[in-house]
Write a structure and sequence with these properties.
Elements lengths: L2 H18 L3 E5 L5 E4 L1 H6 L18 H18 L1 E9 L5 E10 L5 E7 L1 H53 L5 H30 L6 E2 H12 L8 E5 L6 E2 L3 H17 L6 E8 L10 E5 L6 E8 L6 H4 L25 H5 L3 E7 L3 E9 L30 E5 L3 H13 L3 E5 L2 H4 L9 E5 L7 H11 L5 E5 L12 E4 L4 H24 L1
């Protein structure tokens, strides 16, 4: 057989060869009609054998795409003989099919088309862009909220102290009548200002703090974005329930937290490694036998855990207790602003019930977020007041002897509460921050009263740490921002401006319950 005969035989076998390739191949004649199409190309667009033979290529595209191909693609093919790019076609069911297309001009005037289905890649890129845009908006909103919250907190502190001291003056029997009128006017004016602050801060926090959202969807978004942020050598292995897990924690907050956790794990593995992400019921948890540190109160009934476990260089036991502290880092040359894992403590304000870190040097680290599952439907609101203890003690002890700790970054407010309690025969000590409070002997305090929004350690973190030492001691919080998820750590929550009589009643109610429960424990 000569060369000519061999070439002829190859051409005869060419359709069979094209059928065997994994690429989607099609050939059109000069009139744009399909004269050949392999099975891969047919299946890509959902057509049966030879159903498209004799049909125009235009059948696979929208009108606008056809116009684009004729005006921009074909002139390039006519000039250069080839074209490569991406097009969006339509399959037989009308669904979009994103393609990477290679066009070659053939001598008969037709085209040889080789195409690859990139629909999954395009949809993934779109989802990443959408999630990143949502995160950017969320971050901007978070900065706005933080600014408003700080402003509201500082103003509320000053005005609350003014209202409180004015109320004390009004109670004095020897006050001049005219002065009482002036003082009463000051109280009304300050209360009006506080109501404006409350409305402003409530609008800021009302948008997403008490909605039920799907943790699975939030985690999936975090994984999608993180895969583009971690090192190529880092593998993320994911295990999620097949059904939604509804929690009161805002979805975007959980997504941001997961991205933070994954980036920390990735940084702990210099040459890349394995990160396991798992959402499961707390009752099914099998945790590694490593030293651990927790803030909050973990439960196993009706709770889920999100675990992020890496095989990085780990954290020493001495460092574990500081890992959630603002500005703390184990890196020798830290980048960024030193927020790190301390930002996760914000989740305790938003609906998470506990945070946990377990680690061993040269073995790895596991970060865990404890989530309470909601029985509400997705998108419905929660009654955040329901997380408080609701026992009713109608008979209060007139003045229960106790040692009380007060934490407030505003000295005027702290001194006001201390003075009111001392009049009832209650011993109270004021601390300007959580850090100052935890340097004292916590075992000598029977009750904690704390401001909710404070720098470094907020009321949730302070209450969680205090409860870890004194689990049965009551905690009362107060704040100018009322719409906060309290996480079940508080025995009472008093709004600003603080009604002093109401605060004293809550203190005596909490102490009465504490004494009753303590006596029941002793007697049992």
């Amino acid at each position: 057989m000569n060369d000519t005969d061999q070439n002829r035989t190859s051409l005869i076998d060419l359709p069979a060869i094209l059928e065997q390739t994994s690429s989607a191949i099609a050939v059109t004649c000069a009139d744009g009609m399909f004269i050949f199409m392999n099975q891969t190309h047919q299946e890509m667009f959902g057509y049966d054998d030879e159903e498209l033979i004799g049909e125009s290529w235009e059948k696979l595209y929208d009108h606008e795409t056809v116009k684009q191909i004729k005006e921009t693609v074909f002139p390039i093919v006519a000039e250069k003989g080839v074209w490569r790019g991406e097009l969006a076609g339509r399959n037989k069911s009308g669904e979009l099919v994103f393609q990477e297309v290679f066009l070659d001009a053939i001598s008969t005037g037709g085209l040889l088309c080789s195409t690859r289905d990139i629909t999954k890649r395009v949809e993934l890129e779109r989802r990443i862009r959408r999630d990143e845009e949502q995160l950017r908006k969320s971050e901007a909103l978070s900065v706005y909220r933080s600014t408003i919250s700080t402003l509201a907190h500082d103003l509320a502190n000053v005005l609350s102290a003014s209202v409180g001291y004015s109320q004390l003056l009004l109670k004095k029997d020897d006050s001049n009548g005219d002065y009482q009128g002036y003082i009463d006017a000051i109280v009304r004016s300050n209360k009006s200002a506080l109501s404006i602050i409350e409305e402003m801060s409530s609008d800021v926090y009302d948008e997403d703090l008490s909605f039920v959202e799907d943790a699975v969807q939030a985690i999936t978004s975090g994984i999608t974005i993180s895969k583009g942020l971690v090192k190529p050598e880092t593998h993320i292995r994911v295990s999620l329930p097949e059904h939604p897990v509804l929690t009161p924690l805002p979805g975007l907050s959980l997504t941001r937290a997961l991205i933070n956790m994954l980036q920390n794990s990735d940084a702990a593995m210099e040459l890349g490694g394995l990160i396991d992400v798992e959402l499961k019921l707390a009752t099914k948890r099998v945790a590694p036998d490593w030293p651990r540190h927790m803030i909050g109160r973990a439960e196993t009934d009706g709770t889920w855990v999100l675990e992020v476990t890496d095989n990085g260089y780990g954290i020493s036991q001495q460092e574990l207790a500081h890992i959630f502290r603002h500005g703390y880092t184990t890196k020798e040359n830290p980048e960024g602003h030193g927020l790190g894992l301390s930002s996760l403590t914000q989740l305790l304000e938003l609906g998470a019930i506990a945070l946990e870190v377990a680690s061993a040097p040269e073995e790895g680290t596991q970060l865990t977020i404890w989530l309470r599952e909601s029985t509400k439907e997705a998108g419905s609101r929660l009654d955040v007041s329901s997380v408080l203890h609701d026992a009713d003690y109608s008979e209060l002890l007139p003045s229960v002897a106790a040692n009380i700790a007060i934490i407030d970054d505003d000295p005027l407010s702290g001194a006001l509460i201390q003075g009111v309690l001392s009049r009832r025969g209650l011993s109270a000590e004021v601390f300007s921050s959580g850090r100052a409070f935890f340097s004292a002997d916590l075992n000598c305090f029977d009750l904690l009263i704390t401001d909710f929004h404070m720098p470094e350690m907020n009321g949730v973190v302070v209450a969680a740490r205090f409860k870890s030492v004194r689990p049965s001691a009551p905690v009362i919080a107060y704040s100018g921002v009322k719409k906060v998820a309290k996480g079940g750590l508080f025995d009472a929550f008093v709004p600003k401006p603080i009604d002093l009589d109401n605060l004293v009643a809550e203190v005596e109610r909490a102490l009465t319950r504490y004494r009753v429960e303590k006596n029941e424990t002793i007697n049992s």
